[in-house]
Amino acid sequence: PQHLIGLHDMPAARMTALLERAQYFAEGHDARQALAGIAICTLFFEPSTRTRLSFQLAAQRLGADVLNFDASTSSTSKGETALDTLRTIEAMGVRGFVVRHKEDGAVAALAAAAAPGTAVVNAGDGRSAHPTQGLLDMLTLRQAKGPDFSGLKVLVVGDVKHSRVARSDLHALRALGAGEIRVCGPRALLPDDGTLAGCAVSGDLDAALAGVDAVMMLRLQRERMEDGLVDSLEDYHRDYGLTVARLARAAPDAIVMHPGPMNRGVEITDEVADGPQSRVLRQVGNGVAVRMAVLEALLGAR
Ligand code: CP
To answer: What radius of gyration do the chain's Cα atoms show?
Structure first.
């Protein structure tokens, strides 16, 4: 495929091949010339720390020329559309675009309008998809638990409704054959659009944690939320915050993941976020490796 928009249509074999290549990069190998002479632009219409910087580093490690577009300091502020922006940068010879946008489907629309030789990677659109986050989460799980997911119990907790990360994680977990996928959160933050198909859904975090091998916490996305969905942050923390005491209900070697940025003291306590079971910073490091694998697959050997 020319683009990476989501994981919903990615065959398991392709996902596994990308994860194996990412593992090779995570072990310190490189491919310094893979994208030599190719220009890539990170085109972000929403804020980012991890995704943007790790894509930049990934592209540099593959030998690409990297441009960084920041909507807030660009001609977008004069009314230029996202499509005109893409076409303008394409006209400079850029062939890879890493795009984040607040609207569902905006990245797919740009990909559909891009020139035939251009590759577009979704770096997060609206609530829809964040495919490289899904892949880096699967790499983190594989490193901790091995490549066979069939015996794994994985729990996703929190604001699934507004989470593109959760949607991509759930697609990936299903594709890779996770043994049991549990989802827990307040009813108002659980989607009823088919996202949770095949998942065991619960509103009781203490029960949902019992015996799980991995806990994937989600950020409470207050910027995407209508008023009233959550009573108060204190109530949310009481019912859905991951504490050391709660985590003790999971398997003893369970890992804790969070895509970041974290609301410390809301969905996760400092003790858990910084504790021995946390893989939060491993996830960040894996982001570089996964993004190297994705950029190489889409833009290498042309
Ligand atoms: N996980 C994630 O997408 O983080 P950023 O918003 O910082 O890129």
So the answer is: 19
pLDDT tier for residue 228 given thresholds of 50, 70 and 90: low
Domain membership of residue 2 (yes or no) is no
Q: Are 7 and 134 in contact, with CB atoms under 8 Å apart? A: yes
Q: Which residue has the tokens 């594989």?
A: 142
Within-domain flag for 1: no
Identify whether residues 63 and 150 lie together within a single domain. no
Distance separating alpha carbons of residues 6 and 120, to the nearest angstrom: 11
Judgement on whether residues 290 and 266 belong to the same structural domain of the protein:
no
Asked if 289 and 263 sit in the same domain, the reply is no
- Known binding residue 61? Answer is no
Task: Kindly indicate the confidence band of residue 5, based on its pLDDT and cuts at 50, 70 and 90.
Answer: very high
Residue 164 annotated as part of some ligand binding site: yes
Phi then psi for residue 264, to 5 deg, are -65, 135
Largest Cα–Cα separation, the chain? 56
Does residue 137 sit in the same domain as residue 121? no
Q: How many C-beta atoms surround the C-beta of residue 203 within 10 A? A: 13
Query: Tell me, what's the pLDDT at 231?
Result: 74
Q: Over the stretch 203-218, which tens digit does the pLDDT of each residue have?
A: 999 999 999 999 999 9
CA pair distance 284, 260, nearest whole angstrom: 9
Residue partners of 64: CB distance under 8 A and separation at least 6: 35, 36, 38, 39, 40, 96, 295, 299
46 lines ligand 1 (CB under 6 A): no
270/295 same-domain check? no
Q: Same structural domain for residues 277 and 208?
A: yes
Residues 161 and 260 in one domain: yes
> Which of 46, 50, 102 is the best mutation target for the ligand 1 pocket, counting ligand atoms within 8 Å of the beta carbon and taking the most?
50
Tell me which residue range forms the domain holding 67. Answer: 12-130+284-299
